[in-house]
């Protein structure tokens, strides 16, 4: 039976059809998906913090409204992704517990602080830009609920990178102080954004299996190159540079060649020692603990209502 | 961007048990949305809510932000009963080709049928 | 302040309501990513967005009437505490989820009644803004009222907390229904709302909800006023310091 199931599973993947929640799937496929989708969900939710940090200080009402809408989207996207993870047989509470205890991670990019208004623009342009490159690829992922969540997210997220770039264009046209703020933000966010694509393919232990299962459709290095190629000219359009002395356009390949990534920094942040790791998790855990009485009250009220309606009936 | 956050050297991957303890959280609801009048409600995802009233409100906030919705249904996930084993459930229809209109060859001169 | 001073009383009315919505948006903005469950973060952000949207429409209209250098961001970002005419209720701090709910509930009842009346304003543009705001406020009230019931009739702890929140913000509810002298002509012309006349219906909805939520209406007769004339609690200054920081730090910059 197990062999038959495996054959059916392989055939579905081979035919580029989707695996659905009630289908048989290898344990490794299930646990890889749980880990990846949950980390994606955690990234959306933790990612609310660095941006929410500027809601109260947004320079105009319109920017404030756009930023609230964007942070709200991140919450919504976290919700879709938790919802997709839950189809694999694990509860959101368990996933949250794994996040709070550090057993599951989230994208390291959110462990950097937002220090100026320009950072809000840079996050939209660079961080959401990187996310979009990845998420467009993930629309084709082999697990149905994950793929559908990605389609919905990509549709809603199309404004995120644009609003970020619009913030930066305003700065580029602004005062010297604004221009300095802009360049400083790019200097700080550039390398962490490139690191978002993960280790080089040669060092990425999961990539091969994930590609075979079609969870992942394009490798880390290929995605990173696509991202650099699309982003460098956008930096130049702003009149800015990226902080990479080795960056140059290679006429022959048609790609932007970039310098070496500081993987020591990458691993330091992944291991929990980035500038904001502790603050992010502390905030998340505190909010969760502070909200316990609210969640309990809602359950208690629902139970009372249910028993009242039974009595009436 | 990769959401597949790598396991750092020296760390061990976390074991995930899918048969963990029963959650005491708000129950899970499935959300169905009618994009516009004339179309069916289709499943769009799930969410957590303590009761039907908040499930509806939460569904509105979570799933209708682009304003493309005419109606919402929410159903407790435990009330969804699903078919199992696609092979035995749906394969039999394979040999009833006469259920499909293209099975029948009708001369053109008969006109619209 | 670079906003032109005006004798147009309609500007005063528009700005006053816009101030309410701006300040409450700011408070809710502080709370985004702080709600007890992800679904509630979405709801809080949603309400905040509705409030800032209405504020922008009202300020925009006011700026057009005001002329000169007036703009919606000048109203929001460049006026001082004494120039803000929001009600004291909306500037009260979040404290905990119970306070967010109670403050929101009282304000939502008020705004539902206010916008219903203003959507019949003889000023068409104001009526249009109010009609849209009414729909949003109805939704806000549905949400906050449901939470009043859940917290009031939930657990002993939630009951205690929401009663404490009701007790704390109750004294800021009366001000919402105190007529502003400058409005009398607008009310007579059918442009403005007679807020004092909304009070009985407010009381009816509040009493019914508190009763169903097993909560007690505070008996303390003291009601604080002053917001409408720029006499605020100390909370507002800190709120504005944060909200206006960018515009104050970089005068004249475009964002």
Give the topology:
The complex is a heterotrimer of chains A (313), B (113) and C (255).
Chain A: H1 2-14, H2 27-46, H3 48-52, H4 61-86, H5 92-100, H6 117-138, H7 144-172, H8 176-195, H9 207-212, H10 220-237, E1 248-250, E2 255-257, H11 263-273, H12 277-290, H13 292-312
Chain B: E1 28-34, E2 42-48, H1 52-63, E3 71-76, H2 86-90
Antiparallel strand pairs in B: 1-2, 1-3
Chain C: H1 9-31, H2 38-66, H3 72-78, H4 88-91, H5 97-118, H6 124-152, H7 156-169, H8 184-188, H9 199-212, H10 235-243, H11 245-249
Helix pairs in contact in C: 1-2, 2-3, 2-6, 5-6, 5-7, 5-9, 6-7
In short:
The complex is a heterotrimer of chains A (about 325), B (about 110) and C (about 260). Chain A is mainly alpha-helical and about 325 residues long.
Q: What distinguishing features does this structure have?
A:
heterotrimer, A: 313 residues, mainly alpha, 13 helices, 2% strand, C: 255 residues, Ferritin, disordered N terminus
| End-to-end C-alpha gap of chain C | 19 Å
Largest sheet of chain B: 3 strands, antiparallel
Tell me what portion of residues of chain B adopts beta-strand conformation: 15-25%
Measured by DSSP, the beta-strand proportion of chain C falls in: under 5%
Average pLDDT of chain C, to the nearest integer?
95
* Named CATH architecture of chain C: Up-down Bundle
Number of H- or I-type helical stretches of chain C: 11
Structure write-up:
The complex is a heterotrimer of chains A (313), B (113) and C (255). By secondary structure, chain A is mostly helical. Chain A contains 13 helices and two strands, in the order ααααααααααββααα. Chain A has helices at residues 2-14, 27-46, 48-52, 61-86, 92-100, 117-138, 144-172, 176-195, 207-212, 220-237, 263-273, 277-290, 292-312; strands at 248-250, 255-257. A two-stranded antiparallel ribbon of chain A has the order 1-2. In chain A, strand 1 (248-250) and strand 2 form a beta hairpin. Chain B has two helices and three strands; from the N terminus they run E-E-H-E-H. Helix content of chain B is 15%, strand content 18%. The model of chain B has no long low-confidence stretch (mean pLDDT 82). A three-stranded antiparallel sheet of chain B has the order 2-1-3, with helices on one face. Chain B has 113 residues and is of the alpha+beta class. Chain C has 255 residues and is mostly helical. Chain C has a single domain (3-249), classed as Ferritin, core subunit, four-helix bundle (Ferritin), CATH 1.20.1260.10. Chain C contains eleven helices and no strands. In chain C, helix 2 runs antiparallel to helix 6 (124-152) and helix 5 packs across helix 7 (156-169). Chain C is globular, with a radius of gyration of 18 Å. Chain C starts with 8 loop residues before the first helix and ends in a 6-residue tail after the last helix. At the A-B interface, helix 2, helix 4, helix 5, helix 6 and helix 7 of A face strand 2 and helix 1 of B.
């Amino acid at each position: 039976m197990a062999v038959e199931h495996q054959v059916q599973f392989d055939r579905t993947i081979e035919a580029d059809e989707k695996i659905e929640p009630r289908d048989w799937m290898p344990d490794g496929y299930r646990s890889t998906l749980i880990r990846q989708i949950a980390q994606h969900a955690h990234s959306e939710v933790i990612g609310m913090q660095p941006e929410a940090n500027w809601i109260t200080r947004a320079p105009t009402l319109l920017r404030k409204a756009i930023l609230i809408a964007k942070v709200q989207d991140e919450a919504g996207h976290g919700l879709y992704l938790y919802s997709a993870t839950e189809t694999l047989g694990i509860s959101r509470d368990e996933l949250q517990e794994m996040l709070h205890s550090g057993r599951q991670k989230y994208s390291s990019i959110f462990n950097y602080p937002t220090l100026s208004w320009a950072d809000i623009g840079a996050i939209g342009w660079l961080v959401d830009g990187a996310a979009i490159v990845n998420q467009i690829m993930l629309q084709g992922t082999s697990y149905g609920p994950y793929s559908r969540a990605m389609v919905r997210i990509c549709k809603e997220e199309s404004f995120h990178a644009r609003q970020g770039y619009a913030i930066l264009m305003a700065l580029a046209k602004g005062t010297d102080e604004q221009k300095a703020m802009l360049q400083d933000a790019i200097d700080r966010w550039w390398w962490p954004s490139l690191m978002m694509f993960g280790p080089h393919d040669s060092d990425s232990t999961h990539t091969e299996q994930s590609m075979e299962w079609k969870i992942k459709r394009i490798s880390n290095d290929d995605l990173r190159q696509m991202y650099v190629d699309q982003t460098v000219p956008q930096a130049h359009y702003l009149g800015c540079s990226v902080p990479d002395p080795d960056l140059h356009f290679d006429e022959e390949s048609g790609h932007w060649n970039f310098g070496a990534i500081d993987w020591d920094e990458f691993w330091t942040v992944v291991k929990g020692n980035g500038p904001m790791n502790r603050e992010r998790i502390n905030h998340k855990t505190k909010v969760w603990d502070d909200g316990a009485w609210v969640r309990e009250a809602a359950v208690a009220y629902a139970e009372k209502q249910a028993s009242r309606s039974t009595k009436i009936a | 961007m990769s959401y597949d956050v790598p396991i750092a050297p020296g760390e061990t991957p976390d074991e995930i048990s899918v048969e963990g303890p029963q959650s005491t959280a708000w129950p899970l609801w499935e959300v169905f949305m009618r994009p516009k009048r004339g179309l069916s409600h289709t499943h769009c995802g799930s969410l957590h809510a303590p009761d039907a009233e908040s499930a509806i409100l939460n569904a509105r906030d979570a799933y209708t932000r682009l304003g493309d919705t005419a109606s919402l249904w929410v159903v407790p996930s435990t009330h969804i009963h699903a078919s199992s084993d696609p092979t035995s459930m749906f394969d039999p229809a394979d040999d009833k080709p006469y259920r499909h209109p293209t099975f029948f060859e009708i001369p053109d001169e008969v006109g619209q049928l | 302040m670079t906003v032109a001073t005006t004798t147009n009383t309609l500007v005063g009315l528009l700005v006053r309501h816009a101030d309410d919505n701006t300040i409450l948006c700011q408070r809710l903005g502080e709370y985004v990513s702080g709600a007890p469950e992800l679904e509630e973060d979405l709801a809080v952000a949603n309400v905040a967005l509705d409030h800032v949207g209405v504020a922008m429409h009202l300020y925009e209209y006011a700026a057009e009437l005001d002329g000169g250098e007036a703009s919606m961001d000048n109203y929001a970002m460049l006026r001082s505490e004494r120039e803000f005419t929001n009600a004291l209720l909306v500037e009260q701090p979040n404290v905990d989820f119970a306070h967010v709910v109670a403050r929101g509930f009282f304000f939502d009842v008020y705004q539902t009644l206010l916008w219903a009346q203003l959507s019949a304003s003889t000023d068409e543009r104001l009526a249009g803004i109010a009609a849209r705001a009414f729909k949003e406020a109805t939704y806000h009230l549905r949400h906050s009222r449901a939470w009043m019931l859940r917290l009031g009739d939930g657990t002993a702890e939630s009951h205690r907390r929401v009663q404490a929140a009701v007790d704390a913000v109750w004294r800021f509810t009366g001000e919402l229904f105190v007529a502003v002298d400058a409005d009398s002509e607008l009310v007579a012309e059918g442009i403005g709302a007679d807020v004092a006349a909304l009070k009985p219906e407010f009381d009816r909805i509040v009493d019914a909800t508190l009763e169903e939520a097993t909560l007690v209406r505070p008996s303390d007769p003291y009601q604080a006023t002053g917001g409408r004339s720029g006499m605020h609690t100390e909370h507002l200054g800190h709120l504005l310091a944060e909200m206006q920081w960018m515009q104050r730090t970089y005068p004249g910059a475009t964002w």
